[in-house]
Amino acid sequence: MTVIQQVSGDRMKIIMFFPLLLLVCSVSADQTETEVQQSNTQDISAVLRELTASLAVQNERITVLQRENEEQAAKLESQKTELQSQKTEIDELKRELQVKQVAFSASLLGQGRGDTGPYNTDTTLIFKRVVTNIGNAYNPHTGIFTAPVRGVYHFELHMFGYGDIQTGGVLFKNGELICIAYEAPTSGHVSASNGASLLLEVGDQVSVLLHANTRIHDNHNHHTTFSGHLIFTM
After folding, report:
1. Fewer CB within a 10 Å sphere, N or C end of the chain?
2. How far is CA 49 from the centre of its chain?
3. Residues forming beta bridges with residue 196, ordered by sequence position
4. Measured between alpha carbons, how far is residue 215 from residues 37, 117, 142, 143, 159 in Å?
5. d(CA 58, CA 56)
């Protein structure tokens, strides 16, 4: 065999081996790519499982927190209601305490001296100088006492006069005559007094009227007065 023949034979072998080599490389590359894809798919599945598990845990935590928040809100609302109830009870106790403390005293003139009357008819007297008005049941603008609570009250009236004109005041309850303080002097100064204990309902009114055709006097000594106080509730 000549050298040329031998070289030709070697070329033929190389030409025949090269396609086989390419085929082997191609098969190897496909296998590697498949293995990589399978590995990536497994990794993604593992990550998804972890995310799903983590999400489930987070959802459970959120549910627990929501339940705790709802319980806390309900507890706060209950405490708020309880505090409001306690405040209402305290306000009611304060109101009851205030209405159980009722007393007033007033004299006829706010200042100076002067006569009132005589008039042809009974006339409501307005005692303008208020000395005491606990509970604000006496109205110094109308001269009328209004009962703030049901109970027994005691009232007194003192009328001061002089000269030869009769002096008289009348205690009224809701327009009904209760008692009268009356004097008929011929000269000098006189004082007429009276009083009564009355059972009053809430809203009942008590006042003093100047008796018709009588005259009263007041000055800086405050002789002519109207007073009252709550004895006890019922």
Report:
1. N
2. 56
3. 155
4. 122, 5, 19, 17, 9
5. 5
CB 106 within 8 A of CB 128: yes
3-class state of residue 152 by DSSP: strand
- Distance (Å, whole) CA 53 – CA 72: 29
Digit-coded pLDDT (tens) for 87-138: 887 866 666 665 579 999 999 998 889 989 899 999 999 999 999 999 999 9
Size (the chain), residues: 234
Strands (E), the chain: 103-107, 114-116, 123-124, 129-134, 138-139, 144-146, 151-162, 167-173, 176-183, 189-200, 205-210, 216-218, 225-233
3-state secondary structure 35-101: HHHHHHHHHHHHHHHHHHHHHHHHHHHHHHHHHHHHHHHHHHHHHHHHHHHHHHHHHHHHHHHHHCC
Q: Which of 131, 152, 151 is nearest to 140 (CA)?
A: 131
